[in-house]
Amino acid sequence: MDSTPSASSSSPFDLLSGALGRYIPSGGAAAAAGPADARDDRATGRRVPDDAAAGRQEQILGVVNLDRDLRITRSNLDAPVFAGVDAAAGTPFVDLLPPGDVPTVTRRLRQVLESGEAHVARIQRLRRGDGSELVVSLSILPAAAPQEGLTVSLIAMARRLHLYAAETAIGSSLDIGETAQSLAESLLAWGDVAAVDLDFAVWTGEGVIGQTQRRIRLRRAALVPDRAWPEGYATPGDDLPSDASRLLAQAVRRDDAPQAIVIPDRAAVERVLGCPRLIRALVPGSRSAGVACIPLVLDGEPPVVLGVAEVWRRADCPFRDSELLDLQELVARTVHHVDLARQHQREHTQVLALQRRLLPRTGGDTIEIASVYQPATPDSAGVGGDWVNSFPLPDGRTALVVGDVVGHGLGAAATMGQLSMEARALLSAGLAPDEVLEHLDKTVTVLDDAESGLAAGYSALGSTCCIALYDPVSHRVALSSAGHLPPVLVSPDGHAAPVAVHPHPGLGAEFALREPFDVHTFPAPPGSLLALYTDGLVEDPATSIEEGIGRLADAVSRVHPWDALQQAARRVVSALAPVCQRDDVTLLLARMIGYRKGDTATWRLPARDDAPARARAQVCALLRQWRTRDDTRDNVSLLISELVTNAVRFATGPITVRLIRAGHGLLCEVGDTGNGRPRLRRGGLLDDGGRGLHIVHRLTTRWGVRWTDTGKVVWAEVAR
Predict the structure, then answer these.
(1) pLDDT at 28 over 70
(2) pTM, whole model, 2 decimals?
């Protein structure tokens, strides 16, 4: 190896190699060792034992120079710790790496070549000639001249440095799988194969019960190195056989106290496992004979075992007591990261369950619905801010709701769920979109009160919401918005444009900024497509929000009337969602279908005493045309008569009667200009008032009231 740099050279390789010449004593490891029993500590004058001096010699720097084809040109790996690492000139650097790491390291080497920016301190494994592996801290430095290639510095990990680096790497993710994988990669420094098996409750985010006699169900969470494993061996995602779980559980809870155990050789392993099926599931191969099992224990009374880590090595390399202590210290330092990932998984599961419950179902006969929700990140840190919902209202209309709650996580998800359910209840009760937003505005204000609110410590001020109600008879949409971006409407001829919505502050705005919510009504004939979305779909730092909305309108306009709507929604999101997604992305597409003309009929009658008789005659004639049964015709005729009679008696102005043939029922509506709410009351035998509503209640499957700008509409559904 070339370890003698020229005095005039200033390349990174020569500088590091020169430093190595001063750091490593001449004569190699033997000269540095000194007497067998002890060595001088020259800095303090004290004599130190073998283990301490050996520990200092573990942290050794090596250096390799690469050309632009990533082949080794020079190397200085004279330190004893690098023995067996064959860095011969002319060989590809990736030959020193485990196969699974080649793509990642190659990509990083190419990035440094192209950018000229160093990549510092990646924990990496190197392969020795005997098949074992060495854990190093790898840094990639650009050469002084681009044509000279790269310099790779390698620091063999000392015990303390490795523990620190491992804990830092393990704590970098809140995903259970990634956390377990980082732990397994760190444990590999002490063996040939490392595996992490977790209690199934950790995977689901459930609470793990401490010190019970139950049989633990274990699932393999991580396994390194990445290679082809024998058939029947448990790999990540596999549940361990029940007997294996029982045996491991007994091992880590021996004498009712979690503790590490070591099974030194293959014969002892087979004697403990007993069954050939268990040996195939747990033993990684013929070369790996001894194993150290270290429980993942949370301190407490009693302690809680989250799972077990296993480190396998060859029988000719038994575990020393100091190594076992190192393994236990590493696991003890990092087990809280596993528990944090478990808690995060529980929050993630709860949030996603709430999200799934709020996702729209199928639209029905009068409207087709498709939605896409894409969190900012795969874990729950990016879940919970956006929400979308659609549902049929009892009077035949369909509600489309989309909102964006400030923040992410469980606090935002709880607020999202409360606002969504409140909006649904109020819309089902017949309130108009602007009235619903007024209630949501008050709710957000209450939730922001940390003392009396339900979400103390979390503020939802500034959340936005947009509500659209589609009437399939009139083919019109009534829409109100609280600080939300305008929906995009695509007409049947393919023209797309945002709906002109009066801007309004978000929910919970200061009193001085509050304005009455507007209701914007616009036509949506059959074949129209309405797109509601959140800002994550159209926001891009490089463009204005107007340009983003224009791109959305252009993408939605290309949706063909025959396209499957769900697939079209996914295409729109994939085309528009930013590559570096910083916010949740939500899209709701609604294709308007409406009722056929022959399935609806509307009459306007003056509020006179003969109005009930005229309504009965017109309804009976239509029902005969629709070929309804006689009993249904009699019930609907009586129902319309009672509703029109109440309208004449308690309201003024013209009366509107509407009949809709929908699915398996008939929807009857009577509108008037009154503002009184009909209520069903319990009356006495001699009371004359209120009998009409009792008749309505008996004849219908459901009935209710909705409010309009000019009065109210009483609706009722009768089975056909």
Answers:
(1) no
(2) 0.58
